[in-house]
Amino acid sequence: PPPSEDAVAKALHDVFGFSGFRGVQDQVVDRVLHGRSTLAVMPTGAGKSLTYQLPAVLLEGTCVVVSPLIALMHDQLRSARANGIRAATLTSADADRGQTMDAFRAGHLDLLYIAPERASQPYFRDLLQSARVGLFAIDEAHCVSEWGHDFRPDYRLLRPLLDAFPQVPRLALTATADHHTRADILAQLGIPEEGLIVAGFDRPNIRYTIRPRENVGRQIKAVVDENPGPGIVYAPTRARVEQLAETLASATGRRVLPYHAGLDPEVRARNQAAFVASEDMVMVATVAFGMGIDKPDVRFVAHAGIPKSIEAYYQETGRAGRDGDPSVAVMFWGADDFARARQRLSEIEPGRQQSERQRLDALAGLVETAGCRRAVLLRHFGEQPAETCGNCDNCLNPVGVVDVTDLARKLLSA
Ligand code: ADP
Ligand code: MG
C-alpha cells in the first residue's frame, strides 16, 4: 500500500526541510506513490526533482534516474546527499562503480543516477534484474522527442529497458511546454495520456520589465544598484560579457565575475561555485550559464540584449526567484538586435527559416506590447491569463501614464 499522507508530509519536512508542496508537486507524487506512470510538465524552478526524490525515499526499491548530463547528475547527487538521501551515480566517470553496484543490489540506495546510454548495455539490464527498482524517473524527458529542442537518440533506447520492468512506474519530467513534444514523450515512453500533469507557467513573484536600450552599461548598473541580492546579467557575446563585467565591477562595487564558454573550464567551475555560494554576487554571462544551477535566491536577471526566443527568455528569467520571493527580470533591447537576428535568419537552412521567423516575431510581440507582459508570455505557452498582472512594467506604468507617475513621484519625494 502507498505511504500515508502523514508519512509523506513527515518525509517532506524531515528529509527535505519543506513545509509543503508547491504547485502540482503533490499530484505528481501522489500518482507515483500509487504506481501510476506520469509525465510532469513543470517549468524550470518548479521543483521537479522532489517529485522523484520523495518517492525514492518512501518507496521500496531504488529510484533509477535517467539524466542527460553528467554535470547535472553530480549537482543532483550533491543536494540529495546533503539531505541524507542514499544516492549514487553510475557513469563512466565514476571510479567506484563496483561499490555502487553492490550497494544497489543490496538495496542500500534510494537513488541511482544513470546516463541514457547505459540503458542499452546488456549488463545494465542484468544489474537491474538483480536489484529492486521502485521507480524509473526520466529527467529532461523532451530529449526523447525529435520535436523537442534537444533530441538525444540515446533516449530512444530507454523504452525496451522500461518495458522489461512493466510493474515499475515511470515518471517523465520536462519543462517543455510544446504540445507535439508532450504527446511524443507519452508515446515514446509508454505513459498513458491520463498520466499527463501540466503545471501553470506563471511565476508571479517575478516582475518583468522590458526597456529600449540607451546606455546599457548605465542601465544595468542601475538594476544592480537597486537589487542587492545575487543576480545574473546575460550579454550576447563573450566580448560583451568581459566588458560588462569590468564596467559593473568598478561602477557598482559589487563582486562581479564573468562566465562564458571561452573561459578555462576550471575558471568557469570556480566562478559558478562562487556565485552559488554568494548572497550578493553578480554573474555576467552568456547563455552558456544557468542550466542545472540550483540557486533559489537569485534576485534579478538582466538581459543586455534580446534572448533567442520567448522560450529562452522564459527559461533565462526563470532562474530568478525560485524561492518564491520577489525578484525582477529586466531586458534592454535595441532595434539593431532584431535587425541582426533577421539577418541571421537568411543564413540558416531554408527549411527552418519560417519557424525561426515565427519565434522572432513572437519575441518582438513581447517586446513591443503595450499590454501585460505576463499575459503575452502565458498565452504563448497556451494558458489563458488575466488581462493584467499588476507586476510587470506595463501593468505598473500603463503607457501614457508613465510621465505623470514619474512626475508625481518626483513631486512627492521633493
Ligand atoms: P526544476 O528541476 O523543476 O527546475 P528543482 O527540482 O531544481 O526544479 O527545484 C528548484 C528549487 O525549488 C530548489 O531549490 C528546490 O530545493 C526548491 N523546492 C522544490 N520543492 C520545494 C517545496 N515544496 N518547497 C520549497 N522549495 C522547494
Ligand atoms: Mg531539474
TrEMBL record:
GO biological process: one example: DNA repair
Which top class of enzyme applies to this chain? isomerase
Task: Give the Helicase C-terminal domain ranges.
Answer: 219-364
For molecular function, the Gene Ontology terms on record are: 3'-5' DNA helicase activity; ATP binding; DNA binding; four-way junction helicase activity; hydrolase activity; metal ion binding
The cofactors named for this UniProt entry are: Mg(2+); Zn(2+)
* Cellular component, GO annotation: bacterial nucleoid; cytoplasm; replisome
What keywords is this UniProt entry annotated with?
A: ATP-binding, DNA damage, DNA recombination, DNA repair, DNA-binding, Helicase, Hydrolase, Isomerase, Metal-binding, Nucleotide-binding, Zinc
Q: What family is reported?
A: Belongs to the helicase family. RecQ subfamily.
Please give the name of this protein. DNA helicase RecQ
Q: Which residues of the full protein are shown?
A: 14 to 427 of 606
